Hints:
Mean pLDDT: 92
Number of helices: 7
Distance between the termini: 24 Å
Radius of gyration: 17 Å
Oligomer: single chain
Amino acid sequence: xxxxxxxxxxxxxxxxxxxxxxxxxxxxxxxxxxxxxxxxxxxxxxxxxxxxxxxxxxxxxxxxxxxxxxxxxxxxxxxxxxxxxxxxxxxxxxxxxxxxxxxxxxxxxxxxxxxxxxxxxxxxxxxx
Length: 128
Protein backbone atom coordinates (compact mmCIF):
# COMPACT_ATOMS: atom_id res chain seq x y z
CA UNK A 1 0.00 0.00 0.00
CA UNK A 2 1.31 3.40 -0.95
CA UNK A 3 1.73 6.09 1.62
CA UNK A 4 1.40 9.74 0.77
CA UNK A 5 2.54 12.90 2.44
CA UNK A 6 -0.38 15.04 3.61
CA UNK A 7 0.12 17.35 0.62
CA UNK A 8 0.19 14.42 -1.83
CA UNK A 9 -2.95 12.98 -0.25
CA UNK A 10 -4.81 16.28 -0.67
CA UNK A 11 -3.55 16.69 -4.24
CA UNK A 12 -4.87 13.20 -4.95
CA UNK A 13 -8.25 14.19 -3.49
CA UNK A 14 -8.24 17.29 -5.66
CA UNK A 15 -7.45 15.22 -8.73
CA UNK A 16 -10.31 12.85 -7.87
CA UNK A 17 -12.54 15.90 -7.38
CA UNK A 18 -11.61 17.24 -10.83
CA UNK A 19 -12.46 13.87 -12.35
CA UNK A 20 -15.73 13.54 -10.42
CA UNK A 21 -17.00 16.90 -11.65
CA UNK A 22 -15.32 16.62 -15.06
CA UNK A 23 -13.48 19.88 -14.54
CA UNK A 24 -11.09 21.08 -17.21
CA UNK A 25 -9.21 23.41 -14.93
CA UNK A 26 -6.18 22.36 -12.91
CA UNK A 27 -6.98 22.99 -9.27
CA UNK A 28 -3.41 22.19 -8.25
CA UNK A 29 -1.98 24.93 -10.45
CA UNK A 30 0.31 26.87 -8.08
CA UNK A 31 -0.76 30.22 -9.57
CA UNK A 32 -4.28 29.64 -8.19
CA UNK A 33 -2.89 29.35 -4.70
CA UNK A 34 -0.56 32.37 -4.73
CA UNK A 35 -1.51 34.67 -1.90
CA UNK A 36 -4.07 32.26 -0.45
CA UNK A 37 -3.31 32.18 3.25
CA UNK A 38 -6.55 31.53 5.09
CA UNK A 39 -10.04 30.10 4.82
CA UNK A 40 -11.59 33.55 4.41
CA UNK A 41 -10.07 33.77 0.93
CA UNK A 42 -12.17 30.93 -0.46
CA UNK A 43 -14.45 33.30 -2.39
CA UNK A 44 -11.41 34.93 -3.97
CA UNK A 45 -10.19 31.45 -4.94
CA UNK A 46 -13.61 30.55 -6.32
CA UNK A 47 -13.62 33.74 -8.42
CA UNK A 48 -10.23 32.71 -9.84
CA UNK A 49 -11.73 29.38 -10.84
CA UNK A 50 -14.62 31.13 -12.57
CA UNK A 51 -12.10 33.27 -14.45
CA UNK A 52 -10.29 30.11 -15.53
CA UNK A 53 -13.54 28.63 -16.82
CA UNK A 54 -14.14 31.75 -18.88
CA UNK A 55 -10.71 31.23 -20.45
CA UNK A 56 -11.65 27.75 -21.71
CA UNK A 57 -12.09 27.80 -25.46
CA UNK A 58 -12.51 25.44 -28.38
CA UNK A 59 -10.29 26.55 -31.24
CA UNK A 60 -10.44 23.60 -33.63
CA UNK A 61 -13.45 22.59 -35.69
CA UNK A 62 -12.94 18.86 -35.10
CA UNK A 63 -12.74 19.21 -31.33
CA UNK A 64 -15.77 21.46 -31.19
CA UNK A 65 -17.87 19.15 -33.38
CA UNK A 66 -16.88 16.14 -31.27
CA UNK A 67 -17.77 18.00 -28.08
CA UNK A 68 -21.14 19.12 -29.46
CA UNK A 69 -21.99 15.62 -30.74
CA UNK A 70 -21.32 14.21 -27.28
CA UNK A 71 -22.91 16.98 -25.21
CA UNK A 72 -25.47 18.90 -27.30
CA UNK A 73 -26.14 17.00 -30.52
CA UNK A 74 -29.35 18.92 -31.20
CA UNK A 75 -27.53 22.24 -30.59
CA UNK A 76 -30.64 23.44 -28.76
CA UNK A 77 -28.82 24.33 -25.55
CA UNK A 78 -25.77 25.95 -27.11
CA UNK A 79 -27.79 27.98 -29.65
CA UNK A 80 -30.06 29.22 -26.86
CA UNK A 81 -26.99 30.19 -24.83
CA UNK A 82 -25.58 32.09 -27.81
CA UNK A 83 -28.87 33.91 -28.33
CA UNK A 84 -29.04 34.73 -24.61
CA UNK A 85 -25.52 36.20 -24.89
CA UNK A 86 -26.61 38.41 -27.78
CA UNK A 87 -24.97 36.59 -30.67
CA UNK A 88 -26.64 36.63 -34.06
CA UNK A 89 -27.50 33.22 -35.52
CA UNK A 90 -25.69 34.01 -38.78
CA UNK A 91 -22.43 34.56 -36.91
CA UNK A 92 -22.42 31.31 -34.94
CA UNK A 93 -19.91 28.54 -35.52
CA UNK A 94 -19.13 25.23 -33.88
CA UNK A 95 -16.21 26.61 -31.88
CA UNK A 96 -18.34 29.35 -30.33
CA UNK A 97 -21.23 27.00 -29.58
CA UNK A 98 -18.95 24.38 -28.03
CA UNK A 99 -17.14 27.02 -25.99
CA UNK A 100 -20.35 28.53 -24.63
CA UNK A 101 -21.80 25.13 -23.77
CA UNK A 102 -18.60 23.87 -22.18
CA UNK A 103 -18.14 27.01 -20.10
CA UNK A 104 -21.73 26.79 -18.87
CA UNK A 105 -21.27 23.12 -18.00
CA UNK A 106 -18.04 23.87 -16.11
CA UNK A 107 -19.63 26.77 -14.20
CA UNK A 108 -22.56 24.55 -13.28
CA UNK A 109 -20.16 21.87 -12.03
CA UNK A 110 -18.36 24.44 -9.88
CA UNK A 111 -21.66 25.60 -8.42
CA UNK A 112 -22.69 22.02 -7.62
CA UNK A 113 -19.31 21.34 -6.03
CA UNK A 114 -19.15 24.57 -4.01
CA UNK A 115 -19.29 23.06 -0.51
CA UNK A 116 -16.99 20.15 -1.32
CA UNK A 117 -14.57 22.53 -2.98
CA UNK A 118 -14.60 24.76 0.09
CA UNK A 119 -13.57 21.79 2.26
CA UNK A 120 -10.80 20.85 -0.18
CA UNK A 121 -9.59 24.45 -0.23
CA UNK A 122 -9.32 24.50 3.56
CA UNK A 123 -7.61 21.11 3.66
CA UNK A 124 -5.14 22.19 0.99
CA UNK A 125 -4.25 25.36 2.89
CA UNK A 126 -3.38 23.26 5.96
CA UNK A 127 -0.73 21.30 4.05
CA UNK A 128 0.38 23.89 1.50
